[in-house]
Structures are given as C-alpha cells and as structure tokens.
What we know:
Blueprint: H1 3-13, H2 17-28, H3 35-49, H4 55-67, H5 74-83
Helix pairs in contact: 2-3, 3-4
Amino acid sequence: xxxxxxxxxxxxxxxxxxxxxxxxxxxxxxxxxxxxxxxxxxxxxxxxxxxxxxxxxxxxxxxxxxxxxxxxxxxxxxxxxxxxx
Length: 85
C-alpha cells in the first residue's frame, strides 16, 4: 500500500500508523497468559486510541483474556472498551 493511503487514515483517525504497526508486531509474539504483558498491551491500545480505560474495565479485560482464553486482537480490545462504558 502506498504512503498516501496511510496518511489519509492518520488524518481521519488521528492515530499514527507507525504506532499501529508497532502494536501489531508486539501482538505477534506476546504471551497472552502473562498478566503483565496483557495489561501493557491494553494500556498501549488505550494510549494509541486516546481513550481512558478505568482500572475496573482493565481488570475485566485482563481476566477475560487470561482466564477465558479469548484471543487478543485490536477488535477484541476495542469491543471491550466500547462495551465497558
């Protein structure tokens, strides 16, 4: 894909595509059974999305991912953040 495509996405969303790519790379080899790793990813997504995640919601997301074996991807976190409001 060309750079203009990504620049248009950045302009519309306000999200830096380099941040998204770095996050995606970190998800590939992450240990989703490790609470510290999962919390770090949730906080990073929150920071990139410029969306505050209250401690209670973060705890629910972490528990869901670690204990329930849910797959962690950007859509999962986004859905949990949106439903947690």
